């Protein structure tokens, strides 16, 4: 049967009643399985069906192999096509501004086991993720127009592009993620994708601000405990932050905190600062150095200063804050608990189409691409939640099922501030600041009952601890004749959203 005829069949089936009709129908004379039609079902229908037929482990993307550029092809058996082969070929760049070039993956499918089935694949490098689906037996091509950066080219030369066969019901989910992919591109187009995404999904406005886009800060007007909210809108960090903003409902994606020393010099404490080795760590650096790095950051950061409320500033125990900052300096960024601050309750916290199934899928793909990073990001934290040690993601899922807990329930077990990971206590950018606030005595008598690692950036800036009287903001804040209720010190756009 031709590809066209198969497509037509699927479309006809789609319009004639779906679901139960399929499962009970005996009219088909050809091999037929309910799994075959899952790809064309909408996500809301296909996931429950999948979940009923499979255990959580079966729903993981299946790692087929890496297609490397050394002129060898890989072969595997798919869910629909039993014969598959793929090879990778580097190509010339199609963009003028870069000479990195791109690549084409040639993928040949054969021997479909039924006429209704299709295979759905995800192709990933640590820099991009894309997908395609096949329901005809022939050679298909998948084109990477241009590598994002030299590091991606280098990665692909060494490790190739990873290919994952997806559980068939994932298609609806992937389709609804279609506007997520361009977010990670470090181009004007990528920046526009981020802005459009935030406008569409979060109602952000992104009006252009009048010049100057950069304030001339007088460090004398800045005090210990003042909060810096940073919003990156371009490149890999921009894309990552856009998704973080979306799942957490915050309009800022990163934060840092101001500290004054005894001689009146201004310093910045930051968790998630990239060191020379490319690792994200906690630092305390002079203001001038931080500002210079921020100004030349290619992610086009938008920065606002949120001074502490004067009453709290008076209570701020600076020596306790400094002691905490130095005790954390040099420690790694809190990958362990980052995602857990996103996920408080099963039902309310995932904006569609994100759900626990997708979270597991992404986790398992990352595990394959960057194993050490993945172990950092969630394996240890999930082990803590189970009270186990050293289980990998697969074993964690098996253990979870054995205990009769759903994976999404496991994710919602709250993080405890006193959990210590293999590389020390784990704090994200905002947990670092709130822990400092806790030490400095400004979260008051309730502070011992607050788990700061569960805080998102939005939770933090919604706290009623910042300056709420516009007339008391420093005179160098360009707040556009009172139009902005906060002090934006850098950025081309005004979010137009209440930060406070
Ligand atoms: C790659 O392999 C194919 C077939 O195995 C061969 O025809 C071709 O010449 C090879 N190309 C290179 C660049 O080695
Ligand atoms: C500030 O913190 C330090 C260290 O924790 C403590 O010794 C000191 O008594 C605190 N000062 C006040 C005024 O609370
Ligand atoms: C804001 O601060 C100014 C100057 O300190 C003061 O005169 C004014 O009463 C304050 N407004 C409010 C609403 O507190």
Explain what this protein looks like in three dimensions.
- There is one protein chain.
- The protein is of the alpha+beta class and 500 residues long.
- It has three domains: 1-176, no CATH class; 193-337 and 425-494, endopeptidase fold (from Nostoc punctiforme) (Alpha-Beta Complex); 345-413, no CATH class.
- It has helices spanning 3-15, 19-24, 34-37, 43-53, 150-159, 171-176, 188-202, 235-248, 287-295, 310-315, 318-328, 335-338, 356-369, 371-386, 393-402, 407-411, 429-439, 457-461, and strands at 62-67, 74-76, 81-91, 102-112, 119-125, 128-134, 139-144, 161-165, 207-208, 227-231, 254-260, 266-274, 280-286, 302-306, 420-421, 424-425, 487-490, 493-494.
- The protein has a six-stranded antiparallel β-sheet.
- A hairpin with a 2-residue loop joins strand 5 (119-125) and strand 6 (128-134).
- Helix 7 (188-202) runs parallel beside helix 8 (235-248), helix 11 packs antiparallel against helix 17 and helix 13 packs across helix 14.
- The termini are far apart.
- One 2-acetamido-2-deoxy-beta-D-glucopyranose (NAG) binds next to helix 11.
Tally of separate helices:
18
Q: Return the structural class.
A: alpha+beta
Shape: globular
Widest sheet: strand order? Answer: 13-12-11-10-14-17
Span of the ends, CA to CA: 61 Å
Chemical compounds bound to the protein: 2-acetamido-2-deoxy-beta-D-glucopyranose
Number of strands: 18
Strand content: 15-25%
**CATH architectural type of the largest domain:** Alpha-Beta Complex
Mean pLDDT: 73
What is the CATH T-level topology of the largest domain? endopeptidase fold (from Nostoc punctiforme)
Biggest sheet overview: 6 strands, antiparallel
What is the count of distinct domains? 3
Q: Tell me the radius of gyration.
A: 25 Å
Low-confidence region ranges: 1-32, 349-354, 496-500
Assign the CATH class of the largest domain.
Answer: Alpha Beta
| Helical fraction | 25-40%
């Amino acid at each position: 049967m031709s590809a066209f005829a198969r497509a037509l069949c699927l479309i006809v089936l789609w319009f004639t009643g779906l679901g139960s009709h399929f499962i009970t129908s005996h009219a088909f004379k050809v091999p037929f399985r309910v799994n075959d039609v899952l790809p064309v079902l909408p996500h809301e229908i296909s996931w429950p069906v999948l979940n009923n037929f499979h255990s959580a482990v079966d729903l993981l993307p299946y790692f087929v192999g890496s297609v490397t550029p050394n002129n060898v092809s890989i072969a595997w058996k798919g869910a629909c096509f039993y014969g598959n082969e793929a090879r990778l070929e580097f190509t010339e760049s199609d963009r003028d501004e870069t000479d990195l070039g791109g690549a084409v993956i040639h993928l040949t499918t054969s021997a479909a086991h039924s006429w209704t089935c299709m295979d759905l694949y995800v192709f990933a490098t640590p820099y991009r993720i894309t997908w395609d689906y096949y329901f005809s037996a022939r050679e298909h091509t998948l084109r990477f127009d241009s590598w994002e950066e030299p590091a991606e080219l280098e990665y692909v030369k060494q490790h190739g592009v990873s290919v994952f066969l997806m559980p068939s019901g994932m298609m609806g989910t992937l389709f609804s993620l279609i506007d997520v992919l361009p977010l990670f591109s470090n181009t004007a187009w990528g920046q526009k994708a981020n802005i459009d995404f935030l406008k569409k999904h979060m109602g952000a406005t992104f009006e252009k601000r009048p010049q100057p886009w950069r304030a001339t800060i007088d460090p004398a007007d800045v005090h210990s405990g003042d909060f810096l909210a940073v919003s990156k809108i371009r490149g890999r960090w921009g894309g990552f932050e856009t998704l973080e903003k979306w799942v957490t409902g915050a309009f800022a994606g990163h934060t840092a905190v101001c500290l004054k020393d005894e001689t009146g010099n201004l310093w910045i404490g930051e968790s998630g600062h990239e060191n020379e080795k490319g690792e994200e760590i906690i630092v305390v650096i002079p203001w001038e150095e931080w500002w210079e790095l921020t100004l030349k950051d290619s992610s086009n950061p938008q920065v606002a200063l949120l001074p502490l409320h004067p009453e709290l500033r008076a209570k701020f125990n600076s020596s306790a804050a400094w002691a905490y900052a130095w005790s954390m300096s040099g420690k790694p960024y809190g990958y362990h608990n980052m995602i857990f601050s996103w996920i408080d309750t099963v039902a309310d916290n995932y904006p569609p189409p994100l759900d626990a199934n997708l979270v597991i899928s992404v986790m398992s793909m990352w595990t394959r691409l960057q194993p050490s990073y993945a172990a950092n990001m969630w394996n240890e934290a999930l082990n803590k939640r189970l009270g186990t040690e050293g289980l990998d993601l697969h074993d964690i899922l098996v253990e979870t099922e054995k205990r009769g807990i759903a994976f999404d329930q496991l994710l919602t077990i709250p993080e405890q501030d006193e959990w210590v990971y293999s590389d020390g206590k784990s704090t994200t950018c905002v947990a670092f600041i709130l822990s400092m606030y806790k030490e400095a005595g400004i979260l008051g008598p309730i502070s011992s009952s607050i788990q700061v690692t569960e805080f998102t950036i939005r939770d933090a800036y919604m706290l009623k601890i910042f300056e709420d009287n516009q007339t008391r903001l420093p005179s160098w804040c360009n707040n556009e004749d009172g139009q902005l209720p906060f002090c934006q010190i850098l950025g081309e756009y005004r979010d137009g959203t209440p930060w406070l």
